[in-house]
Amino acid sequence: MFDRNRRPRRLAALAALTLVAGCGLLSPGSPNDDPIVVGTTSAPSTLDPAASWDGSWELFRNIYQTLLSYPYGSTTPQPDAARTCGFTDAANRTYRCVLRAGTTFSDGHSLDAAAVKYSLDRIRRINVSGGPAGLLANLRSITTEGDREVVFHLARPDATFPFVLATPAMSLVDPDHYPAHSLREDGRVTGSGPYRLTSYDEGEKAELRANGKYRGLAERKNDAVTIEYFRDSAGMVGALQRGDIDATYRGIAASDVVALQADQVKDGLEIVENPGIEISYLVFNPEDRWAGKKAVRRAVAQVVDRAAIAHKVYKDTVRPLYSMVPAGLVGHTTDFFDDFGEPSTSKARKILAEAGITRRVPLTLWYTIDRYGSETAPEFSELKQQLEDSGLFTVALRGRPWKTFEAGYRRGEYPVFGRGWFPDFPDADNFVAPFVGKDNALGTPYPAKEITDVLLPRSRGRGDRGTVAEDFAEAQRILADDARLLPLWQGKQYVATDEDLAGAERALDPSTIMLMWELHRQTSW
């Protein structure tokens, strides 16, 4: 069962630990100096939180600190850099945090109320295009009271504001090292998280070491982590199988997941499956001649076979999704299934005929070739085949790298395009609000006034997030009727590790970001 010949580096480390410990055995979870090596295909685009609204958050969660974060097993933000936080008014417009006493950054500088205000004001002041400033659109001002109290004044009631503060975008930075009006560009980090970033080779490797000055929720079970960035799943999985790395966490291709599951006992590996709330969906441009027609969108919704995509392309490592709000969150429904049922060409033909459309509808579907994994192109090939096999559509496919793809959809160039969504926080609001309104995240204005003017404001006035189901159910009904956004699938998250590594089952937070401090070697048997 244990193929020890393929792990000489790990054996040497264990031997050294045994010598240090004498005849005794270290207990599981005992920190040690030998780095745990984790592989991922999600390399940071920046080291500065003011510029990041992307996968850079994976690193940020481990080297920076936020006022609130998520303890294991909770989907409700709890104080981290703060000692206490809460709304001070019934209207959910004034939010107050009191910081932990004696908290410092890794360089010893004080993490005080002024540093918190500086960090968040800096995000809004720099306002990087595509950056996180939009998350603070409802923040009117920040005031401080002494060294430890910070008060956030909101323009409108918003019970989701604690979730915003818990995102890695709101990471706290040392004012002495981060310019007020521009990004930090020296390739270094000064944070207050569980780890210090001691070395960084862009796109290749990040070396993390324990931050002895950290004060917060995380209970670190190791002293050092090295993150290696891979170009693709095959290279990453090969490194795991050779014993060059101890774990992988984001970017494992579906075929590799299936292969690892089949061979995990033989290879001395363990695959941990976690529920995920990542979603994939299509966006229809209302300005396009054909995609702008409601009947065309609803006919596409009637033809698309999500189960076939999940099974044929993703090997059942994703699940069909019939709502923009994923399963597991308050507000999830199955409106697209309720409205359209099983895929049906005859029903789709009737939808088009009733709108006076009797010819094949020409559509061009766009996707990014380097953002969401190697299955994206096969997924769009499957969509093309499904639509054309109905006899109702003629489909062309186009792919672009992410940077030019994103610029293109923001300019309104694409009739239909595919997007994925890794949530900012685990609340239904974050699967609806970013996609509707004039200045939404998709660059295609969607004036859904009942959602933007009634349902979202009403739900944000409710501090108990368990009571918002009715509002989001109504929002989902509107979205399904319009079919401007077509949900396709909801992801699962897989962590693959060497069987000697423990903690993977605890290592993903509610936004599916890996908490490196949960990983540790099992050093007794």
TrEMBL record:
Solute-binding protein family domain sequence ranges: 77-441
Listed Gene3D superfamilies: Dipeptide-binding Protein, Domain 3, Periplasmic binding protein-like II
Annotated signal sequence range: 1-32
Statement: the UniProt record of this protein carries the keyword Signal: yes
Keyword Lipoprotein: yes
Any one GO BP annotation for this protein: peptide transport
Major place of residence: other
InterPro entries listed in its UniProt record: Peptide/Ni-bd, SBP_5, SBP_5_dom
GO terms for cellular component: ATP-binding cassette (ABC) transporter complex; cell envelope; periplasmic space
Keywords attached to this entry: Lipoprotein, Signal, Transport
UniProt-annotated location(s): Cell envelope
Gene Ontology terms for molecular function: peptide transmembrane transporter activity
Family recorded in the similarity comment: Belongs to the bacterial solute-binding protein 5 family.
Name of the protein described by the UniProt record: Solute binding transport lipoprotein
